[in-house]
Amino acid sequence: MTAETLRFLPAEECREQFENYFNDGMGPAESAKYHKGVLEMNADFQPSDLANSRINPTQRTIEYWHEKWRLINLGPRNRHGMIEKLKEKMTTYRNCNVQVEFEENPFAVAIVTPIMKRSHCLPTSKEIIFVDSTSSCDAESHSVTFMLTPCAAGAVPVGIFITKGQTEGSYKQGFRLILNILKESAFCNEGGPATFITDDSDAEISALKKTWPQSQHFLCIFHVGQAVWRWLWDSKNGIPNNYRQQLMYHFQQIMYAETPACAEEAYLNAVGYVGSFIPTYPLWNEYLNKIWNRKELWCLAFRDETIRGHNTNNFSEVAIRIFKDEVLSRVKAYNVITLIDFCATTLENYYSRRLQEFANYRNAGPRLFLEKNEKKSNIFSKPYQAGAC
């Protein structure tokens, strides 16, 4: 037979094999490449076998099988069909010890895996939580929000939820679903943490305050400084190039002030330019006055030891990078059910593997970081007394 003739042979005999590839997380292109490698490893392999569609299906056939498999296992992309498929898969998630809850209006899905549930036993989970979101994670542009707590190995997620948008209502729904799943065991049996660190998102902060009104809220100082720098470089604000760096220096003096009195003095200097030789700018004064009114959220002088030195949400940034690189591979997921499956399997396996490496002393990074900080710190000890700090 010629290669053209072999191409038209029926390929149903290996369909089940490709469905197993899809179940393992492979897409059409990856499964086709992997299957060719399997064929070439056979002892009786002949080069002409690659032209035989019966044992090496065409790319179009593989894509067709994948479309059918995806529709059966993940449902359609549209909301109604996807919701019905999600309801069908709830039993599967429970059997895998993954707790999932969802609401349709506003749409939100909360996910708590075994590692996330165990992380609520950490003492730090009642002290400080980092919250951050990433948008456009699937074809319908759903957002994924991470809640993390620090630990000896870095940070571990305490919960993840998926929402249609980043509105206050969506955030409140997601936070409420997390609490519904965990009930009394949430945040080391405290029901909520003492402190949240977030980006400067009004919707997110408002939802946190309404869900946990007793908690403190602080902003990541890196993103605050970044926002000020962007404002200075925005041409519509009329700040000359040669003065932008000096104005940023004035703002940093406020942000890194050691006491509230020093912060206020730095603020007065920044708006009046005491001791400096640059002109004043009304727009800059107006902008600085606006963010000064929220100084408790970003100025270090108004923070104490309860935040454990966490002035940025770098852990959140790393968690989102891991999710996009290791889980999504920098492409959008098919739909929400795919995102749930990824969080319940791929992301869970990643954290499990990394935590095992840390426990088995295969990763010296956190230990070296701790030793480096200990050298910079003044450590003292005192006799232990029950109830004393």
TrEMBL record:
It holds the Pfam family MULE. It comes from the Eukaryota. Residues 144-225 form the MULE transposase domain. This is MULE transposase domain-containing protein. The lineage of its organism: Eukaryota, Metazoa, Ecdysozoa, Arthropoda, Chelicerata.
